[in-house]
Amino acid sequence: MTLTKLLYKSFAIITCLLISLTANAQDIDLLLKGGHVIDPKNGISEVMDIGITGKDIVKIAKNIPENTAKKTIDLKGYYVTPGLIDMHVHVFNGADTESYIANALTSLPPDGFTFRSGVTTVVDAGSSGWRNFRQFKKQTIDQSKTRVLALLNIVGTGMYGRLEEQDVTDMNPTMTANMITKMFPDILVGIKSAHYWGDFTQVDLAVEAGKLAEVPVMVDFGEHQPTNSIEALFMKHLRPGDIFTHTFSYGPSNRETVVDEDLKVKPFIFEAQKRGIHFDVGHGGGAFSFRQAIPSIQQGFLPDVISSDLHSQSMNSGFKDMANLLSKFMNMGLTLEEVVLRATWNPAKIINRKDLGHLEVGTEADIAVFTLREGDFGFLDIRRTKIDGDRRLETEMTIRAGRVVWDLNGLSMPHWESEFK
Fold it and tell me: Residue 2 pLDDT more than 90?
């Protein structure tokens, strides 16, 4: 073999090796570079990089080299969190004008209201019951890019209307539990009791179903005249692991409040939380009052979960969106890490979906990216009162299953001139 052929062959081998090494090195499809990562489950709050391949997170570390990735997004100056979990929404959207929530206009199509606020997973809070859940699944859950989980209403027809929600004969623990355990265990994560005008009957039937299905029960305990005792609810009827929603609602003629008229948190509230009752915000269009929330936070009673109660009657009122809601709690005294915890890992644990709400290698890449604005802002409750604040989260980007699904300022996009290069 001549020297020329030998050199040519050596060059070819080296070239192939370099190409192979480069290909192997670029095993990351998308690299999120230099963002301040907040992952409460793993105790992370520092600048780190995240590598994504396909749908999954494949690497989390400091200073991942850019040449190991096919595409890099510079997130210096931004906050990177797990995709938010909104544990209380109503998304059984439909056109039945006779219905209130189930298959109704009041419920919203999830994709239009999730990604733009950093939410990648929602939990529908009892819009459907065992009779109409399959319709909900077919027309909403199966059509959504947002991950939609659900609490099944103890009432078979779900939230069709207030009258139907009083029908004890349609509250069937066995059918409810069977729908969860035998048919849709990966989607149905709990049971809902709501809007009952009577005693504890509906709650007790929901808890019976919860025991059969081994899932938590969420209770909306309003609309009782006279009000029923929430101390009895927490200490005698609910189990550790069950959920009380609309925690900071103020409507003392319809529901007992957690804060009394002297603005003191009732002592049994702390005992209930120690017992394992979970307290959910469920802001909604009529269920969040500063006169309940601010004294609670000042006295050390914090909600376990921050959720929206998203529907058409809440999105344009005091609630706005999840980024605004988290900002509201930050301006009432919680840290950024504390609000992220209550919208990621805490709800994931409560609904027994520990595959969600955190950033770990091997998990699906559901990620939110926020800007933290500083300035003069106002935040509203549902009673047409406000607080002033100096910090507000703005959703910059949302990634669902490894794909950018919301990009406010085009961080993931090339400039238009690149088309001519």
Answer: no
